[in-house]
Write a structure and sequence with these properties.
It is built from 4 helices and 6 strands. It has 139 residues and is of the alpha+beta class.
Length: 139
């Protein structure tokens, strides 16, 4: 517990509910590790916001843009007041080089999110197909 308090003093930020941590298209500002609270990851699809995942204590996010050195591909918003560790890109790079178990955790996390994204895409395709069937005139 003491270690968590020290980490929070050094890297922690308390975000109020409703805070947008990052948006699609923004550059990497670091990776985030939730110590307490909830964060929703979502993708904008036209006027809709499609939830990719809702994360809680112990979960991390924001690593993909840093690893790929590309802009953010999703949005992150705080669902309830949250205490989050903010790991800056330089520190993150150093951690990946020194701690191979962290790299494995990140790969597992990315694979899980990819699976969820595929499931969401599948549901959207099915819904679109049903909508087209309703719009088609019968014989």
């Amino acid at each position: 517990m003491r270690e968590e308090m020290l980490l929070f003093k050094k890297f922690g930020v308390t975000f109020p509910a409703g805070t947008v941590i990052f948006e699609e298209g923004q550059p990497c500002s670091g990776m985030y590790i939730i110590q307490k609270g909830r964060v929703r990851l979502y993708k904008k699809a036209g006027q809709e916001k499609v939830t990719i995942d809702v994360l809680g204590e112990g979960d991390f996010f924001g690593e993909m843009a840093c690893l790929l050195d590309q802009p953010r591909s999703i949005n992150a918003v705080v669902e309830e007041e949250s205490q989050i560790l903010v790991v800056e890109p330089g520190v993150l790079d150093e951690l990946f080089r020194e701690k191979s178990d962290l790299g494995i955790k990140v790969l597992d996390n990315l694979a899980s999110r990819l699976r969820k994204a595929y499931e969401i895409i599948g549901r959207l395709v099915e819904e679109q197909g049903r909508s087209r069937e309703k719009e088609s005139p019968g014989p």
